[in-house]
Amino acid sequence: MLGKSKRTPGPRSWNPLNSIIRFHEDSLGFLENLAWNYGDLSSFRFGHLLLYFCNNAEFIQDIYVTQQENFEKGLGVETARQMLGEGLLFIDSEQHRR
Fold first, then answer.
1. SS3 per-residue string spanning 40-83
2. How far is C-alpha 51 from the chain's CA centre?
3. Is the pLDDT of residue 84 over 80?
4. What is the DSSP letter of 5?
5. Per DSSP, what are the bridge partners of residue 49?
């Protein structure tokens, strides 16, 4: 018997551009919808990329401070940086520690 998928909860769509379109139309609304409907940690397709959205301060501290060596900022980071601007989420660990 096959087990259930272990993928993080999030919107599913047959159209790989759906999340890109929705994010472009209303970025804040898109992220609020993720948090409201899928909880503190969700995932979604952004074109061909699988992205994760974290909406929990304790989780974010673990990801970027406590356990930062266990997480890698993937290929989508540059795209996200272009959409969201420069900020704490996009600096490397040495800059972050300052």
1. CEEEEEECCEEEEEECCHHHHHHHHHHCHHHCCCCCHHHHHHHH
2. 5
3. no
4. P
5. 46
- Choose among 78, 23, 33: nearest CA to 55: 33
**What is the CA angle 28-69-65, rounded to 5?**
55
pLDDT: which is higher, 45 or 71: 45
Over the range 11-47, which residues count as b (16 or more CB within 10 Å of their CB) and which as e? beeeeeebbbebbeeeeeebeeebeeebeebbbbbbe
- Which pair of tokens denotes residue 60? 């974010």
State pLDDT tens for residues 5-18.
678 899 998 887 99
- CA–CA separation, 57 vs 54, rounded Å? 8
pTM (predicted TM-score): 0.69
How far is it, in rounded angstroms, from Cα 65 to Cα 86? Answer: 18
